[in-house]
Amino acid sequence: MSKRIRKAVFPVAGLGTRFLPATKAVPKEMLTVVDRPVLQHVVDEAREAGIEHFIFVTGRNKGVIEDHFDIAYELEDTLKKRGKIKEYDALIADLPPAGAASFTRQQAPLGLGHAVWCAREIVGDEPFAVLLPDMVTLGNGPKKSRCLAQAVEAYEAHGGNVIAVEEVPPEETHQYGIVSVGKDFGAAFEITGMVEKPPRGTAPSNLMISGRYILQPEIFDILAKGEKGAGGEIQLTDSMVTLSGSQAFHGVRFDGKTYDTGSKLGFLAANLAFGLTRPDIADGLKAEIAKLLG
């Protein structure tokens, strides 16, 4: 029987250069989609999937992330004194339990694979999830489950390692990690190969790796070698290719939509999409969109 997925790693050390000057003093992960930081949406997704321990790989000038997942005594006390109990309860509900959030530093920008490797001592010898903080998801289907929950379901069915994927236009495959498809099981399928940002016209499919992973701890031994790939960085995809020589990998087609908030267009689209799911503002937002479109 496969070990339960209890821990998740969030690589949040990036500089956010695509959003300067907004990210000069504010981490890109703390920019808001409607009224919640991007990172809070991703943590919410992990919690919904059953994650119990949240591991943040941070960098310099990211202390506000740690503060966000801690108590804020003055604010909470003021809310209670002013009778703003709804707002107070919302703050408390977002807090991880004591001891359930860990923070470690990626001291140099050496790539996603290196960031994941930095969490090795906290993860230990058990399978774990990785969630890229730029990617926020909304679920479709009857359960409306988000991406990681669907990946965990595939893991419970097949074991091994699981990667969430989504379709992209063929002309965009050179921008992403792309998988090769083997035996198909419907929602999930065997992965027979992976390539990071293949040259135009060479991609084995149009299924991109969409930023949600479930990995076995043996990945750390491969990442420890520090082998550099695309962009001169330690690529997580390259280490997964190596691990696939000895362990099974399955892909799960996410039944929903992923928004890349690391791009300006994706960030704006995420705000619109999440806003339209909110009963308190959806009608007003539709009206404002109609005005803008003339």
How would you characterize this protein structure?
The protein has a 9-stranded mixed beta sheet with strand order 5-4-1-6-11-8-12-10-9. The protein has a two-stranded antiparallel ribbon with strand order 2-3. The protein has a two-stranded antiparallel sheet with strand order 7-13. The chain starts with 6 loop residues before the first strand and ends with a helix. It has 294 residues and is α/β, with parallel strands linked by helices. The mean pLDDT is 92. It is 32% helix and 24% strand.
The gist of it:
Helix content is 32%, strand content 24%.
Distance between the amino and carboxyl termini: 57 Å
- Number of separate helices: 11
Order of helices and strands: EEEHEHHHEHHEEHEEEEHHEEHH
Helix coverage percent of residues? 25-40%
Major pleated sheet = 9 strands, mixed
- What's the number of domains? 1
What is the level-2 CATH architecture name? Alpha-Beta Complex
Secondary structure category: alpha/beta
Report the C-alpha radius of gyration, rounded: 19 Å
> How would you sum up the global shape?
globular
The unreliable regions are none
- Which superfamily, in CATH terms, is the homologous superfamily? Spore Coat Polysaccharide Biosynthesis Protein SpsA, Chain A
User: What is the number of E strands?
Assistant: 13
Largest sheet: spatial strand order:
5-4-1-6-11-8-12-10-9
Keyphrases for this structure?
294 residues, Spore Coat Polysaccharide Biosynthesis Protein SpsA, Chain A, two-stranded antiparallel sheet, 13 strands, globular
